[in-house]
């Protein structure tokens, strides 16, 4: 593959992003579902690519015809297949860059209830997934036990985490896990938005919400995903003079450095294992760990250093957000557009079982646990965690914005504090990255027991500690 072919594949990516945005602006039902433009574009790529359009045209043209792969060439698809695994490292490296970490006391007091709730639901997804796998999917459908981790990887982690785990699934001889995870992540995002809006309407009617009394919905421009002219703000601050260095280039350099620190950590862990327990036991456990959670640690390390030496505050969080958002859009488009429909068809029943179980568990957790764990504004705060546990963080933020448009509740602050402790472990953190290798190496039952203990820990803390505060109020 030549550099020109790779370059044209990137250009095609930009064109499909524009088409996805155009569809969001002009198609009403896409606006009402608040579908991300990148997700719309990913579905479009799937339809016009080799898996749908290519198969249809294949009946009428020869194999060497341009139309045998739809309107996308094999080279374009090959480039796009590699992008999710690269972009996820950028997404996770930027999670903590430019953020000032608050005190543990504030995190615990404000974000503690949501941490307990999210911890219960997140670990519970492992309990539900592994339980169903060992009792039903493995004995009756021949699905490997590591499929039990798919709900948490896809629902809590989203498309990015699913893409980042591709190499891990290949290493443990379950390459189909990647396609199933991406498909489940798509189900998670859709269910998070659709079910979330249904829950909000129910909450308003039943007077469960404290901030809004009716659902007026967003403005027409907001549904189209366009910022109202009078509300537009700068996307980022210019912290350095462009004649010395382009601010975007500087911030990309910081992100690249964070990823490289994570890469060095990965190689160091593999080296330590080879010299110590790996040499004695023949284990190669560390080789299964993907790069993205270590890139997140690299970002934390770099932020800690910059917090002490960056007196001029040249690192701007908003600029980091723009880089993160770009990487996530590219990731979602490429991951959804290249997912294997053959794999989903082959594992259709296990896929549906895991998808339905994940949705039901999230709804159950929100309706039963959130109001008993979160002392105040339980609906406004809990709906954000429901959205995140179903898809991506953006889904949670969207749902919180619907029920608290003017930020009158502590929902956004508590959600942000909770993420500081939650994300290094679940939803794409270290636990998510280690779950598949651990189940592969030691079997499903040790991890099932551990996940049950962790979920119950969050449950008891939420019900009896934070829930007790609610009762005293």
Note down, in words, how this protein is organized.
The protein is mainly α. The protein folds into 2 domains: 3-82, no CATH class; 97-224 and 316-472, no CATH class. It has helices at 3-26, 28-32, 37-48, 53-57, 74-93, 104-141, 150-156, 158-164, 166-171, 176-205, 220-224, 247-275, 277-281, 292-309, 317-337, 341-346, 348-373, 378-390, 393-403, 411-422, 430-442, 444-472, and one strand at 68-71. The N and C termini lie far apart (66 Å). The mean pLDDT is 84.
Can you tell me the overall shape? Answer: globular
Backbone CA Rg: 22 Å
Strand fraction band?
A: under 5%
Distance N to C terminus: 66 Å
Summed up, the domain count is: 2
Total strands:
1
Estimated helix fraction: over 70%
What would the average pLDDT be, to the nearest integer? 84
Structural class: mainly alpha
The sequence of SSEs as H and E is: HHHHEHHHHHHHHHHHHHHHHHH
How many helical stretches? 22
Largest sheet: none
Give start-end ranges of low-pLDDT stretches.
none
């Amino acid at each position: 593959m030549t550099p020109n072919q790779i370059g044209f594949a990137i250009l095609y990516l930009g064109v499909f992003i524009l088409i996805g945005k155009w569809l969001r602006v002009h198609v009403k039902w896409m606006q009402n579902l608040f579908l991300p433009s990148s997700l719309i574009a990913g579905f479009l790529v799937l339809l016009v690519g080799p898996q749908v359009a290519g198969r249809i045209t294949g009946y009428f043209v020869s194999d060497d015809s341009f139309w045998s792969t739809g309107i996308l060439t094999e080279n374009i698809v090959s480039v796009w297949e590699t992008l999710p695994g690269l972009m996820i490292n950028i997404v996770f490296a930027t999670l903590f860059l430019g953020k000032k970490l608050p005190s543990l006391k504030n995190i615990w007091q404000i974000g503690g209830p949501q941490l307990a709730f999210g911890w219960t639901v997140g670990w519970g997804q492992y309990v539900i997934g592994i339980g169903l796998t060992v009792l039903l999917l493995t004995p009756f459908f021949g699905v490997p036990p590591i499929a039990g981790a798919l709900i948490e990887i896809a629902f809590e982690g989203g498309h990015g985490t699913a893409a980042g785990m591709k190499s891990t699934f290949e290493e443990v001889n379950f390459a189909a896990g990647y396609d199933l995870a991406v498909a489940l992540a798509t189900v998670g995002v859709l269910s998070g938005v659709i079910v979330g809006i249904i829950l909000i309407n129910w909450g308003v009617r039943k007077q469960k919400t404290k901030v809004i009394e009716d659902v007026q919905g967003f403005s027409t421009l907001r549904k189209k995903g366009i910022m109202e002219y009078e509300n537009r703000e700068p996307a980022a601050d210019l912290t350095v003079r462009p004649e010395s260095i382009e601010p975007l280039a500087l911030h990309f350099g910081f992100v690249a450095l964070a990823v490289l620190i994570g890469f060095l950590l990965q190689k160091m862990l593999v080296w330590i294992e080879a010299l110590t327990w790996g040499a004695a036991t023949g284990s190669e456990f560390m080789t299964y760990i993907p790069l993205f959670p270590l890139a997140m640690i690299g970002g934390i390390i770099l932020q800690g250093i910059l917090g002490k030496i960056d007196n001029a505050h040249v690192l701007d969080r908003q600029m980091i957000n723009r880089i993160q958002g770009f990487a996530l859009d590219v990731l979602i488009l490429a991951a959804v557009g290249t997912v294997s429909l053959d794999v989903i068809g082959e594992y259709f029943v296990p896929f549906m079982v895991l998808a339905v179980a994940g949705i039901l568990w999230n709804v159950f957790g929100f309706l039963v646990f959130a109001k008993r764990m979160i002392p105040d504004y339980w609906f406004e705060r809990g709906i954000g965690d429901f959205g995140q546990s179903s898809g991506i963080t953006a889904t949670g933020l969207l749902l919180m914005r619907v029920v608290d448009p003017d930020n009158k509740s502590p929902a956004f602050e508590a959600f942000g504090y909770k993420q500081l402790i939650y994300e290094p472990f679940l939803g794409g953190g270290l636990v998510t990255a280690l779950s598949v290798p651990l189940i592969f190496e030691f079997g499903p039952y040790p991890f099932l027991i551990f996940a049950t203990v962790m979920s119950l820990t969050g449950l008891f803390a939420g019900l009896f500690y934070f829930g007790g505060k609610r009762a005293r109020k």
